[in-house]
Amino acid sequence: MTATDEASPRRRPVRAALCWTAAGLVAVVATAAVGVGAMMWPVLSRPPGASYPPPASRTEANLQDLHYLERFARVNRSFSPAERAAFLAQVLALQRRAGELDAASLEMGIARAVAVAGDAHTNVRGAAWGLSLNAIPLRFAWFREGLFVVMATRLTRNWLARGW
Predict the structure, then answer these.
(1) Where are the alpha helices (DSSP H) in 45-144?
(2) Are the C-beta atoms of 12 and 40 separated by less than 8 Å?
(3) Which of 20, 70, 90, 150 pairs as cysteine with 141 (C-beta 3.0–4.6 A)?
């Protein structure tokens, strides 16, 4: 094959078709990548950082956590409008009780509020990953009638009395 064969008029349309096909393929892949990136951005983006002064008390710490949790309703796309309203109502109820919530009660209340989303993937605290609340001071035993609590601390008795 000579240099003149390569530039022959019969090969130019084939080469042009290959170039246009490659360019089209690159455009399709780039468009798909941008589309996937745009869809995944809300999922992969991190929520804004919390910037609160150090809390002076447990109540203030709880209120700061719950104030920050309100932002979750804006960034989480799993809530329907009714679920978002129910979530915010539960957060408000927790804020009203902030002074009486210990760490476990706060975490359980937050988990209950987030569960309003209705999917198994949405979570905001460590309990879902076993990072916190990985043990609870209750002892259970099976009887013929079913599973029963046979020992509880004073704090867990309060949880049980509330239906938690």
Answers:
(1) 58-70, 72-75, 81-96, 103-114
(2) no
(3) 150
Task: Render the burial of 103-125: b for 16+ CB within 10 Å, e for the rest.
Answer: ebbbbbbbeebbebbeeeebebb
Q: Does the pTM exceed 0.85?
A: no
How many alpha carbons lie under 13 Å from residue 99 in its C-beta half-sphere?
A: 1
Residue 69 near residue 87, CB atoms below 8 Å? no
Query: What's the token pair of residue 119?
Result: 């999917």
Contact 118, 78 (CB under 8 A): yes
Q: What residues pair up with 138 in beta bridges, in sequence order?
A: 152
How crowded is residue 137: how many other Cβ atoms within 10 Å of its Cβ? 13
- Using CA of residue 114, residue 117, residue 123, residue 127, what is the dihedral sign? positive
